[in-house]
UniProtKB/TrEMBL annotation, chain A:
Official protein name in the record: 3-methyl-2-oxobutanoate dehydrogenase (2-methylpropanoyl-transferring)
Pfam families: Transket_pyr, Transketolase_C
Known cofactor(s): thiamine diphosphate
Keywords on record: Oxidoreductase
SMART domains tied to this protein: Transket_pyr
EC number: 1.2.4.4
Organism listed in the record: Oryzias latipes
Top-level division of the source organism's lineage: Eukaryota
From TrEMBL, chain B:
UniProt function note: The pyruvate dehydrogenase complex catalyzes the overall conversion of pyruvate to acetyl-CoA and CO(2), and thereby links the glycolytic pathway to the tricarboxylic cycle.
One function term, GO molecular function aspect: pyruvate dehydrogenase (acetyl-transferring) activity
NCBIfam families from the UniProt entry: PDH_E1_alph_y (TIGR03182)
Any Gene Ontology CC annotation: mitochondrial matrix
GO biological process, one term: pyruvate decarboxylation to acetyl-CoA
EC number: 1.2.4.1
Keywords assigned by UniProt, alphabetized: Carbohydrate metabolism, Glucose metabolism, Magnesium, Metal-binding, Mitochondrion, Oxidoreductase, Phosphoprotein, Pyruvate, Thiamine pyrophosphate, Transit peptide
Entry cofactors: thiamine diphosphate; Mg(2+)
Protein's UniProt name: Pyruvate dehydrogenase E1 component subunit alpha
Record gene name: pdha1a
Coiled coil: none
Database matches in Pfam families: E1_dh
Length: 383, 386
């Protein structure tokens, strides 16, 4: 489970003061919020998710809905795609029998083995093959079994897929390619079944990186990725596959990419996150309101690249502290996304004093399966 | 002469005490069997007339039985949620680990993928340390920080989670051996699923070009997770996939076959001829991991058939008994011994404390003095000692 939390404090109108030096008062205050969050470290055994999934309200604008969990909503999206687009093919390791997370159950029986087929164990080959299929005109939906295994394909994604349109002068493109991968901490995943590699791709022009927070969002965003004319990477929070259940429209619908969504209005603090962390933050913002009287705005970024600068930076700021908290296993994520936000922030607020940047909230070591998940934010209830 | 001796010995045994008299048995036996060995770009073949001493037989039995019991215990502990995370069990494939170790030295090197418990044991790890690592305790072989997939000991490089990633590493180890001129080699194992990874072919090329002393071994247990070999590979002759690398394929369920094939391969490497590729046809009884029941892509009948006809421990046991190299009682004594060892180890693994939390960040880098590591917020400082 990983997400970055951008923590913006609105300066002039804010009732909060940001202390300087270590033990900044706001941070410390928020740290004291959650009952089990203390500076004393202790081993805690977690047997269940440390957050409660908060379902979206039932959508009314897309027609009939059905109760689905995350993997079922993915199946539904793929089903819609295969039925409406005769060139669509789905491939990856073990997708034929339904996939290790059951995202492709029933599709092979319904659409045939030439449209839903297994690949051998070769991620670089899978993505390379997907690029080729997409360039030739097929809607290629490749599955990488875990986001942790995407690295052999990194070269294909960054060097081949992302730059195809540019280097061919728009003669060719692999916009038909969508890569799906289960993503993020799940508690027992340890080093190689828990990673959140979105930041590695967040600096690569030419691709889009999308992470949904729940089933209804996932289906719409996935269908948008498939329809999008650029190669997209769609990360699915694996901890939500079964845990997240809500009403999802049965028919096809799209949710626009690169549009962040303000889930909760607030006046003092803006919290930005994606994926599983949204649900943690919603709990945190409730706690902040209740215990500190702090009004938090919660924004779901949804598309990591290209991200919605406008929505995130739209508030008036006179003195902003940019606080990044990341709960994933890659430390450099923090630095990179910090850099992006910092860069943007400085650009937007050039008439204001440049804010200090505080990186924070990330385990800087590989995830240990012993410890209760790698899920931490300084704002969240500690596990 | 065997039959008469058997009769006399049974008679005497019946009169004797429970303790077994060593004089009753053939100290060695020569097995002459034509074991199926497919060759690729090889003019010679491993010996088909093999000798196994009683001592060797009992040793192989002991080790295989230990691995078997250890894996079954791990299964039990996993179901009790004492072992968490991922657990890939090796039962069914014991002959591979034991046969390979029988033909290499402790000073040789070995690297494998995640189905590593058996190899950790044959390479010198104790059952106690292995089980404690599975339960993530400080007495574990990797200090409780690695778990099932990351076990290491001297000249055993793990224990690797990413499929196929260990193969180029193995070639590197072999290069070091060649460079240092110590006549050691590296045994580099991977599975039938990994055999389709690109980096394996890159490694074949490098190893062959530079004549590295590496034995590539493909443990073909017919299923890459849930995908059968026919559905994953254009060519299931994994011993030929090295193309320009000579290869051989043997029955991986027979410990003597594996031993002889490895002996042959080791000689090939040590004589400076370069790499060699071995395919061991074996089988795993459990699913891919503990979260895989193992019966959705194969039938129970198939598993039963392999268990009854080709179980490595049964094969060895039959061989020992029918050739009068050991008695049923003797083997039972070994069984009891093994069972006790496993029970003790499980007890230790369940009661040993977890690694202390201040060791959380250790060994990230190599550093002296300790390095400060940021925790989950800017004011939480942790220490990394290395």
């Amino acid at each position: 489970m990983a997400a970055a939390v951008r923590f913006f404090i609105r300066g002039a109108n804010s009732r909060l003061s940001v202390g300087t030096g270590t033990g900044g008062s706001l941070g410390a205050a928020l740290l004291k919020l959650s009952p089990s969050c203390s500076s004393r470290s202790k081993t805690q055994r977690r047997h269940a998710a440390h957050f409660t999934y908060q379902p979206d309200p039932v959508p009314t604008q897309y027609g009939e809905t059905q109760k689905m969990n995350l993997f079922q909503s993915i199946t539904s999206a793929l089903d819609n795609t295969l039925s409406s687009d005769p060139t669509a093919v789905i491939f990856g390791e073990d997708v034929a029998f339904g996939g290790v997370f059951r995202c492709t159950v029933g599709l092979r029986d319904k659409y045939g083995k030439d449209r839903v087929f297994n690949t051998p164990l070769c991620e670089q080959g899978i993505v390379g093959f997907g690029i080729g299929a997409a360039v030739a005109g097929a809607t290629a939906i490749a599955e990488i079994q875990f986001a942790d295994y995407i690295f052999p394909a990194f070269d294909q994604i960054v060097n081949e897929a992302a730059k195809y349109r540019y280097r061919s002068g728009n003669l060719f493109d692999c916009g038909n390619l969508t890569i799906r991968a289960p993503w993020g901490c799940v508690g027992h995943g340890s080093l190689y079944h828990s990673q959140s590699p979105e930041a590695f791709f967040a600096h690569c022009p030419g691709i889009k990186v999308v992470i949904p927070r729940g089933p209804m969002q996932a289906k719409g965003l996935l269908l948008s990725c498939i329809a999008d004319r650029n190669p997209c990477i769609f990360f699915e929070p694996k901890i939500l596959y079964r845990a997240a259940v809500e009403q999802v429209p049965v028919e096809s619908y799209t949710i626009p990419l690169s549009e962040a969504e303000i889930l909760q209005e607030g006046s003092d603090v803006t919290l930005v996150a994606w994926g599983t962390q949204i649900h943690v933050l919603r709990e945190v913002s409730d706690m902040a309101q209740e215990k500190l009287g702090v009004s938090c705005e919660v924004i779901d970024l949804k598309t990591i690249l290209p991200w919605d600068v406008e929505t995130v930076c739209k508030f008036q700021v006179s003195n902003v502290t940019l606080w990044i908290s990341k709960t994933c296993t890659q430390q450099r994520v923090t630095c990179c996304i910090l850099g992006r936000f910092a860069g943007r922030q400085m650009k937007t607020c050039r008439t204001h004093p440049i804010p200090p940047l505080l990186p924070g909230g990330c385990w800087t070591h590989p995830n240990l399966f012993l410890l209760p998940g790698g899920c931490r934010t300084h704002l969240s209830p500690a596990i | 002469p065997g039959k008469m001796l058997t009769n006399i010995s049974s008679l005497l045994r019946a009169c004797a005490q429970k303790s077994v008299s060593l004089n009753m048995f053939y100290p060695t036996n020569c097995f002459s069997f034509v074991f199926k060995c497919d060759l690729h770009k090889l003019d010679e073949a491993p010996a088909t007339e093999v000798v196994m001493t009683r001592e060797e037989g009992l040793k192989y039995y002991h080790i295989m039985q230990t691995i078997r019991r250890m894996e079954l215990k791990a299964d039990q502990l996993y179901k009790q949620k004492i072992i968490r995370g991922f657990c890939h069990l090796y039962d069914g494939q014991e002959a591979c680990a034991v046969g390979i170790e029988a033909s290499i030295n402790m000073s040789d090197h070995l690297i494998t993928a995640y189905r590593a418990h058996g190899y950790t044991y044959t390479r010198g790890g104790t059952v106690k340390k292995i089980m404690a690592e599975l339960t993530g305790r400080r007495g574990g072989i990797a200090k409780g920080k690695g778990g099932s997939m990351h076990m290491y000991c001297k000249n055993f490089y793990g224990g690797n989670g990413i499929v196929g990633a260990q193969v180029p590493l193995g070639a590197g180890v072999a290069l070091a051996c060649k460079y240092q001129g110590n006549n050691e080699l590296c045994v580099c194992l991977y599975g039938d699923g990994a055999a389709n990874q690109g980096q394996i072919f890159e490694t074949y090329n490098m190893a062959s070009l530079w004549k590295l002393p590496v034995i590539f071994i493909c443990e073909n247990n017919r299923y890459g997770m849930g995908t059968s070999v026919e559905r994953a590979a254009a060519s299931t002759d994994y011993y030929k996939r090295g193309e320009f690398i000579p290869g051989l394929r043997v029955d991986g369920m027979d410990v003597l076959c594996v031993r002889e094939a490895t002996r042959f391969a080791a000689e090939h490497c040590r004589s400076g001829k370069g790499p060699i590729l071995m395919e061991l046809q074996t089988y795993r009884y459990h699913g891919h991991s503990m979260s895989d029941p193992g019966i959705s892509y194969r039938t129970r009948e198939e598993i039963q058939e392999v268990r009854s006809k080709s179980d490595p421990i049964s094969l060895l046991k039959d061989r020992l008994l029918s050739n009068n190299m050991a008695s049923v009682e003797e083997l039972k004594v070994i069984d009891v011994e093994v069972r006790k060892e496993i029970e003790d180890a499980a007890q230790f693994a369940t009661t040993d404390p977890e690694p202390p939390l201040d060791e959380l960040c250790n060994h990230m880098f190599s550093n002296n003095p300790p390095v400060e590591v940021r925790g989950t917020n800017p004011w939480a400082k942790l220490k990394s000692v290395s």
